[in-house]
Amino acid sequence: MKGILIVSHGTLDQRAKARSLDLLFEENKQRADIVLACFVSKKTIAGENVLSLDQAMKKMLDLGVDDLHIYNTFVIPGDIYHQFLTTIIPYEAFFKRLVIEKPLLHENCDFSLLARMLTREYAMKSNRTYLLIGHGSTIQTNKLYAYLEAAFKKQAMTNVHLVLIHGHPSIDDVMPTLNKKQKIMLCPLMMSTGHHVAHDVKQYKKSSIETKLLENNFDVEVLDQGLAEYRTIRDYIMHNEKTSI
């Protein structure tokens, strides 16, 4: 029996979840005999309808799935992705076939493809500056964000910059290079716009990215849409077939 498991970090924002992660599940629930979704963040696993990764793997076995394809919504292969792999690998022996997809940004081609998709989805204009806001992870994996910025520059989009909530470049690193004559668009490089967008990006507290920019007299707009709200990116997550196992 074939199964599909869609794994996400998770969000407590139900409206953001409905616009993004729920769509990913709904659009793919007919692709296998059993299709489940789960979260890996303990903070976001709440309520009867949200499974943990362990619960989802055990449920697949209980339902008789022996051919399991696991997709994930991680942007980069950071700490959370490696914890996800650590949880899954012990289950490998119980399936005849287990396929685990890699994160959104992993292969060389991913960077240029995502740059092209976001250029279209954001309808990027030359008279605006776009700050793509990533969560950030370890120093080693944060370099992948730099590869994405480089991919935009190769496509002559020099007005796109990466900013990390955790790590460098931070908004303090990038701000001195920004043009105050251009409107700054804050674009979350996250699958759903939950806690981090509300608290770390938007004008919610003094340390937020929007607040710092406004205090320095920038014209700012927050694009309150997660990556998984775009059909092109949802399709790329589910159909790219860049397997790690």
User: How would you classify the helix and strand content by structural class?
Assistant: alpha/beta
Q: Approximately how much beta-strand content do the residues carry?
A: 15-25%
Question: If strands are numbered along the chain, what order do they take across the biggest sheet?
Answer: 3-2-1-4-5
Spatial separation of the terminal alpha carbons: 19 Å
> Could you tell me the mean pLDDT?
91
What order do the helices and strands follow?
Answer: EHHEEHEHEHEHEHEHHEH
- C-alpha-based Rg, rounded: 19 Å
Task: Describe this structure in a few short sentences.
The chain is 36% helix and 19% strand. By secondary structure, the protein is α/β, with parallel strands linked by helices.
Verbal overview:
With 245 residues, this protein is an alpha/beta fold. It is built from 10 helices and 9 strands. It has helices at residues 14-19, 21-26, 53-62, 79-88, 108-121, 139-154, 171-174, 195-201, 209-215, 231-239, and strands spanning 2-8, 34-39, 51-52, 67-72, 97-100, 128-134, 160-164, 183-188, 220-222. The strands form 2 sheets. Strands 3-2-1-4-5 form a 5-stranded parallel sheet. The chain has a 4-stranded parallel sheet with strand order 7-6-8-9. Helix 5 packs across helix 6 (139-154). It is elongated, with a radius of gyration of 19 Å. The two termini are 19 Å apart.
Defining key terms:
19% strand, 36% helix, four-stranded parallel beta sheet, 245 residues, five-stranded parallel beta sheet, alpha/beta
